[in-house]
Amino acid sequence: MEWTKLCVHTTTMGADIVSNALLEAGAEGTQILDRYDVLSSDRRDGMWDMIDEKVLTDLPEDVVVEAYYSLDRHPAEIRASLSEQLSPMKNGSMGFDMGSLRIESEQVQDEDWAENWKKYYKPTRIGKTLVIRPSWENYTPGPDDRVIEMDPGMAFGTGTHETTSMCMEQLEHYVRPGCTCIDVGCGSGILALAAVKLGASGALAIDLDQDAVRVAAENVERNHLSDKIRVVHGDLLERSEETADVIVANIIADVICFLCAPAKKHLNPGGVFICSGIIREREADVCHALEAAGYHIDRRMEKGEWVCLAARL
């Protein structure tokens, strides 16, 4: 089967926004090619050796988001729809550099893209003990490794993005044996999986996106944790009976600002709310919303342009 492949040139900070725009324009799937994701990975204990040097050579100099469309959509129609969505993002209107947003297109065969992105996704260590192993890669764990087997599919969350890796490091700091966790906007389910691997007795993974719920459920099953992690479709705020010791939300600043106050009823006494997906320019807004809701910032992390906060009531 042939596909139309569209590539949009952007920046690390703009990649997720562009990916969402491509999906809203009807893409069957997207992949982000960002050499910073590889270069910024933690490579202690020999993890550098797991990265094929040719991967870095093949990656573009800027960030490129690739998207694939079936041929029942005319390429000109797709480009027009995409240009309409991307146009308001130019000239610094987003508050940060989105890059050139240049669009390229070509025709590709199914086998050219369905498996191609996997070569950029290798076993990766996050924090001290967590290791993310793609389901198609071999890895021999060390005595203290907690290995999460992942196939992110079309859902966000491979662990390589700064926002995700910081959440995982925060979980490593806060999760205690027997505690419970809620992963809001779970994407691939990676944060719920990390919490349980770190000792949580149970986790709720919840997302509004049906594809994310499906992928997360598959990853939970893949890691043989269906007895400890429930994956549900819906909105946390509509599930008033759920409470946990740790709530983690890797979303965006605006949603965190909206979520932090009503999320309090889902947080057990002494619990912690971990939030990420916050660009540095919006950190003050999120801190203000947290403090207004009665939280105090307990721990802060920063990687690249992103900030992750852990707050307590």
What does this structure look like?
The termini are far apart. The longest helix is centred in the middle third of the chain and has 13 residues, at 162-174. This protein has helices spanning 15-24, 35-39, 53-58, 75-86, 110-113, 162-174, 190-197, 210-222, 253-259, 283-292; strands spanning 2-10, 29-33, 63-70, 103-109, 124-126, 130-134, 146-150, 180-184, 202-207, 229-233, 244-250, 267-279, 296-303, 306-312. Strand 9, helix 8 and strand 10 form a beta-alpha-beta unit. Mean pLDDT is 83; it is low at 39-56. The protein folds into 2 domains: 2-120, Alpha-Beta Plaits, CATH 3.30.70.260; 124-312, Rossmann fold (3-Layer(aba) Sandwich). With 313 residues, the chain is an alpha/beta fold. Helix 6 (162-174) runs parallel beside helix 7. It contains 10 helices and 14 strands.
Considering the chains and any ligands shown, give keywords for the structure:
2 domains, 14 strands, four-stranded antiparallel beta sheet, 313 residues, seven-stranded mixed beta sheet, Alpha-Beta Plaits, single chain, globular, 10 helices, alpha/beta, Rossmann fold, 30% strand
